Amino acid sequence: MENNQDNRTPGRNGNAGGDNKNNNNQKPQFKWMQWLFFATLIFFVASLFMDPNSKEGRRVQKDLSYTKFQAYIEQGMVSRIVIYDDNTATAWIRPENYTVVFGSAETGENVKGELTALIPSVVVFTEYLQDINTQRKARSETAIDISFKKSKDMWYIIAVNILPWILIFAFFIWMNRGIGNAMNGGIFGVGRAKAQLFDKDKKDKVTFQDVAGLEGAKEEVQEIVAFLKNPEKYTELGGKIPKGALLVGPPGTGKTLLAKAVAGEADVPFFSMSGSDFVEMFVGVGASRVRDLFRQAKEKAPSIIFIDEIDAVGRARGKNVLTGGNDERESTLNQLLTEMDGFGTNSGVIILAATNRADVLDSALLRAGRFDRQIHVELPDLKERKEIFGVHLKPIKTDDTLDINFLAKQTPGFSGADIANVCNEAALIAARNGHTCVGKQDFMDAVDRIIGGLERKTKIMTEDEKRAVACHEAGHATVSWLLQWANPLVKVTIVPRGMALGAAWYLPEERQLVTAEHLLDEMCATLGGRAAEEVFLHQTGTGALNDLEKVNKQAYAMVAYYGMSEQLKNLCYYDSTGQQNYFEKPYSEHTAQVIDDEVRKMIASEMDRAKKILTEHAAEHHALAALLVEREVITSEDVERILGPRPWKSRGDEVMELNETASAQETKTDTPETKEPQNTEA
Q1: How far is CA 628 from each of CA 207, 429, 502, 622, rounded to the nearest angstrom?
Q2: What's the DSSP call for residue 366?
Q3: How far is CA 30 from CA 33, 190, 434, in A?
């Protein structure tokens, strides 16, 4: 399950009724056969270590013939005798005679020596002992203590001899019934669905008002709730309620949070279950849980079923050739397809699902009649990030000078979960530095920490390495600043972070349409570091690995996918369906050679352009590199002071101005105006 803690107001519990009482989540009740099995097992184990006639201490027993038994008695080695009604007798040896009888030097109070023998009869043996005691009294010796007891406990005999067979027999009966009924919730209830039922009356629940941004997705999800609340409005014209909706989007964008909002808004039962909950080591359990889940939903219809991370069971069938047709996941998917649109009717049951890998789902799962709608939950734009920051900044004690617009501009491509992480990291950094409130610099440090990693202040570089890194990063800064479509620079540092020895932070333009000029300028700016090494240091290092990898992938995408080369113009070899064989290329070997040539030509052209820019502005580059060596960190203000202001306006500022203008127009439209009556006479 993804971490969808984004876009939620403080004080709300993310579980949204997850701790409600639910009969389906209770532990399975044990039947009488199970209780009998466990009771018998406990009694049998206890009986093995229990003897009703045992005393404290360790016993040493020895069975004797009646003649030898009499000899020990007549020799005065016995201190006490117990006679049982089953013609057996037990005698206790005196401690001083223990070694003679048992042949061991082990003595002491905790050692009890016992002699057992069969006697002719209780009466005859009793008379014999009375004669022995008479003789001992005549010699002024201690008489033998004689006592009578019933035979050993019958329960002990049963436990040792009979109960083990009863235990084994009951165990096989229980296992036979349990496995036979596993599909109906048999042994330990493995076939029952582990769905979580959300209570509509829960106080700390999530609603649509708690979800910031995602206006388009919220509108479609709200319509599903409206279907269930007032189905007659949509069915009286002959329409049918959609059966399912699939929430698709990158991780952290709020798919699970939207589902929680549906649970909070809907006045119907809401069953939540993860895709991995259907997967089990037992064969057939996944399909059984699917049937049980839909059975519960039908009993409480109208209701909603939510399956999070459905790609765990909804992957395309037939891709794994090793498991064949007996794959447990495929059986679960087949049952899910049957329940969603089979011979049975699921009137009043709507299925919601969430995934960030819609490309791997089975095509039968996405057809009309099953998941009728695909709701795309994309990364937030500039306006939505501003709203999300407003939500997560409420519980944080911030500085009065903090600008939310600035934070929204500094976090392009961040999801709601990333923004929540930035706010939390900024608060931790401020507390670590002893600040009384969280300021702008704390948020900038938090963004740097998340993007680039933790500063490695203990990493020691030589002066030559430091100058080489400064030259490389100054090359990036110079070229990107002088190109119109390159991303605007924010900060450059030569302090090692993560695996990098230096880094440059840019503010990517959030464009809806990217042209070839944009891509070429970004490629030229990325090659600025390697170009600076070749122009000014007359050598190349391994620090440009990440830059070269990025440029190489981008050039191949422009040539093979976007059709932006001269030789392969308007040709695309990209397969969006994912059905293309990984080991087969959709083009010939000659075309592959042409693609390689075009990529090499494109990268060489942009490399020459970067070298030309650096040669023309060598003095400015040297000033930036020297400032980097001195300060280790420079910002866009320092670059502007050396290279001059950029003549091009940032698109982020344009988008923010458009959003503010649109908001002002909406506010003006919502304000009622006083209109004078018009004269309609001719």
Answers
A1: 50, 25, 11, 10
A2: S
A3: 8, 13, 57
**Are the C-beta atoms of residues 20 and 271 closer than 8 Å to each other?**
no
CA distance 659 to 603: 37
Number of residues assigned to the chain: 682
- Find residue 62's DSSP bridge partners: 115
Instruction: Report H helices in 255-355.
Output: 255-265, 285-299, 328-340
d(CA 348, CA 296): 12
Annotated active-site residue 330? The verdict is: no
Task: Please answer whether residues 182 and 282 qualify as being in contact, where contact means their C-beta atoms are separated by less than 8 angstroms.
Answer: yes
State both tokens at 443: 């948020």
The answer to whether residues 532 and 474 touch, using CB atoms and an 8 Å cutoff, is yes
For the chain, give the mean pLDDT.
76
pLDDT level of residue 187 (50, 70, 90 thresholds): very low
Place of tokens 């229980």: 174
Burial class of residue 518, CB neighbours in 10 A (0-12, 13-18, 19+): middle
DSSP string, 256-285: HHHHHHHHHH-SS-EEEEEGGGG--SSTTH
DSSP string, 547-597: HHHHHHHHHHHHHHTS--SSTTTT-----TTS-S-TT--SS-HHHHHHHHH
SS3 for 57?
coil
State how far the Cα of 263 lies from the Cα of 265, in Å rounded to an integer: 6
Cβ neighbors of 565 (< 8 A, separation 6 or more) are 558, 559, 598, 602
Q: From 363, 59, 374, select the one nearest 220 (Cα to Cα).
A: 374
Q: Given pLDDT bands bounded at 50, 70 and 90, which one contains residue 373?
A: confident
How many other C-beta atoms are found inside a 10 Å radius of the C-beta of residue 35? 10
Nearest partner of 95 among 82, 80, 83, judged by Cα: 80
Q: What are phi and psi of 331, to 5 degrees?
A: -65, -40
600 burial (CB, 10 Å; 0-12 / 13-18 / 19+) is exposed
Tens digit of each residue's pLDDT (9 = 90 or more) over 82-141: 888 888 888 888 877 777 777 665 555 556 778 888 888 888 888 888 888 888 888 888
Which value, in Å, is the radius of gyration of the alpha carbons in the chain?
42
Q: Is the dihedral of CA 515, 521, 525, 526 positive or negative?
A: positive
Least confident of 41-55, 383-397, 651-665: 651-665
Please choose, from the candidates 403, 400, 397, the residue with its C-alpha nearest in 3D space to the C-alpha of residue 385.
403
- The verdict on whether omega for the bond into residue 395 sits within 30 degrees of 0, i.e. cis, is no
Measured over the CA atoms of residue 417, residue 423, residue 424 and residue 429, the dihedral's sign is positive
Which amino acid, 528?
G
Geometric angle at alpha carbon 357, from 353 and 358, rounded to 5°:
65
Residue 285 φ/ψ, nearest 5 degrees: -70, -40
Q: What tokens appear for 213 in the block?
A: 């941004």
From the list 473, 509, 522, 598, the catalytic residue is 473
